[in-house]
Amino acid sequence: MFTSPLIAAPMAGGSTTTSLALAAQGAGAFVFAAGGYKTAEQLAAQIAPLRATGIDFGVNLFVPRNTALASGQAAALRRYAAMLGPTAERYGAVVPEVSLAWANPQGQDYWDEKVALLLAEPVPVVSFTFGLAPSRVVSALHNVGTRVVASVTSVAEALAAAQSGADALVVQHANAGGHTAAFLAGGEVYQGTLVDLITEVRAAVSLPLVGAGGISNARAAKEVLRAGAVAVAVGTALLRTDESGARAVHKDALADPRFTSTEVTRAFTGKPARALVNDFVRSYSATAPNAYPEVHFLTASLRAGAAATNDPQALNLWAGTGWKSAQEGPAAAVVRTLLAEL
């Protein structure tokens, strides 16, 4: 399924640009277009150059929540919006009115439109994160020749994904930067290493596995491959490259010695995600509600205001635990170095 042992992970929100995907693909990595937060039209524009190369690639979609917030979560969301006011004012931003219209196209991340696009104009691989695609969607994608990949964080999720008809799994460890792919409620954070997790999932399912989360060098990648993965995915390792669409202040923070640790937080989006620890993480992690994507929309203008002033202290500085190894320069050079060492 994958044409390379190295995968350039899809980083939504602008980090995975068309230029980054093409550079990584040209250097020998298997790449994914990041479909999260894009309309169908925007996704189609990112797919077209990848399709034109004639090389297999994938598209990643967010699986949206299919229920309204519980009353307790909705109340917590309103309290959180009120708490954000002073910080937003500091950056000349306004916290929007709390909206619980989760079922609108934006709240559903334009799911229906993007699935329709991928059925009308099939791509080689489609991966899903934040949940499992409905069986009817998996069947429809199979019918147009597309292979389906599910993102999982535990053996239980891997078993559920295999039952759903997935052709392969991305096994994401908690060391990964950005959002967790976890979708089963009540699961505890995995305490072993990525190698341990791959080994356990390998024993439970027979699907091809991709290891992801905190892989910052070839040595770590080799260990994951030896444990039974067919490929490894890297994201943070590409964030500082020339073609990355990450904000300059984000790229600079990854190399700034003032930032000494990462933490999983809901403060920015309402969904657990690993980021460099900054003032916003310290101030709001304890009170941020479990409400994605509502919190994402609440903090959007605040984050934009912080970016406009080049202040990293209120930005979502997504980073895996291996962030210190992220290098500047052409993405192709990073990919070629990793592949050569593999």
From TrEMBL:
Enzymatic reactions: 3 propionate 3-nitronate + 3 O2 + H2O = 3 3-oxopropanoate + 2 nitrate + nitrite + H2O2 + 3 H(+)
What are the GO MF terms of this UniProt record?
Answer: dioxygenase activity; nitronate monooxygenase activity; oxidoreductase activity, acting on the CH-CH group of donors
Q: Which sequence ranges are marked TM in the entry? A: none
Keywords assigned by UniProt, alphabetized: Detoxification, Dioxygenase, Flavoprotein, FMN, Monooxygenase, Oxidoreductase, Signal
Task: Tell me which Gene Ontology terms the entry assigns under biological process.
Answer: 'de novo' pyrimidine nucleobase biosynthetic process; response to toxic substance
Q: Which SUPFAM superfamilies does this UniProt record tie to the protein?
A: Inosine monophosphate dehydrogenase (IMPDH)
Q: Which PROSITE patterns match?
A: DHODEHASE_2 (PS00912)
| Secretion signal span | 1-23
Q: Which cofactors must be present for this protein to function?
A: FMN
The record's annotation in CDD domains points to: NPD_like (cd04730)
Spell out the InterPro entries in the cross-references: Aldolase_TIM (IPR013785), Dihydroorotate_DH_CS (IPR001295), NMO (IPR004136)
Family of this protein: Belongs to the nitronate monooxygenase family. NMO class I subfamily.
Q: What is this protein called?
A: Propionate 3-nitronate monooxygenase
